[in-house]
């Protein structure tokens, strides 16, 4: 019979724990790819023809749109986006397709347009403050600015006016 020592079994356990930690650590650095929105099938999109199809046939072929234009039902939009992120970083768009189906007033397809990621506007906020109109007050002005204003007239307090009107105490 073969006997195992305590040292060899504990070594195997430590090796298994070490390998598990290595695998879990490496999996945190993998790229995550996600798809958002409509899954565009090129064959189905190419089958929609201006002058031939109408709203009902487009809905039957492509399905309901991602959204419809706000000013009348002239345009239908199908939005598809591929995103990529590394571990816990913010996801970034890698590919985007916006399919716009335009209809004429009779409900027939007038045109089918595609727009890509190059049409996306990149907005960069200006600094870390939002410009506002009004007074420019510091933190101390906000905290201590109302000292002495308690009961002042016009500030919602009981302000020192006399009651000389025609009320029960005023005559």
Automatic annotation (TrEMBL):
Pfam family, one: BamE
Domain of life where this protein originates: Bacteria
GO cellular component: outer membrane
InterPro entries reported in the protein's UniProt record: BamE-like (IPR037873), BamE_dom (IPR007450)
Alphabetized UniProt keyword annotations: Membrane, Signal
Record-annotated Outer membrane protein assembly factor BamE domain positions: 37-111
Protein name from the UniProt record: Outer membrane protein assembly factor BamE domain-containing protein
Lineage, uppermost ranks: Bacteria, Pseudomonadati, Pseudomonadota, Alphaproteobacteria, Sphingomonadales
